[in-house]
Amino acid sequence: MAAIFTCCLGCCGDGGPGHAPLKEMPTVQLDTHHMGTDVVIVKSGRRICGTGGCLANAPLHQNKSYFEFKIQSTGVWGIGVATQKLNLNQVPLGRDSHSLVLRHDGSIYHNNEEKNRLPANSLPQEGDIVGMTYDHVELNLYLNGKNMHCPASGIRGTVFPIVYVDDSAIIDCQFSDFYHTPPEGFEKILFEQQIF
């Protein structure tokens, strides 16, 4: 019996010869390598303040992605999806073909064109949670778990979640452990290794 116990410890317990440690999957968070020069990222890559934009560190490769943003402090802000080609120092975003964003005033912009708008009585306020779904065609918005029924589309290429702030805005990003249940068929952002 002692021999079996020793064998089990030798093979499994101490990482001896032949043991391959499991590789921990990276965490989706704001990417300090893809942010504006006056942006500050805190709270383990989940909070943005300062002035400018920041991309998440994971592209939206999967078919149906969901992520959330919490408005911690109002000001000028925008959230959505963007390619790595955009200028992260130029706010507001949505001025070119590289970003599709909901702005703090409820407008959704892409290529300097208003694509849609939240209902006037549904503008996000301090403490609100804005959820987003993206399926490589449409970006859809949810305010505190409720579908706002204002889809927007037009962006092409590999996109990442984007957030920008200015004028004292503070935004928290939730890429997992959501405040609200994602709509059916949508899930948290997966790194490419997790998809295959």
From TrEMBL:
Domain B30.2/SPRY: 1-184
Signal peptide: none
SUPFAM superfamilies recorded: Concanavalin A-like lectins/glucanases
InterPro entries: B30.2/SPRY, B30.2/SPRY_sf, ConA-like_dom_sf, SPRY_dom, SPRYD7
Coiled coil, from the record: none
Protein name: SPRY domain-containing protein 7
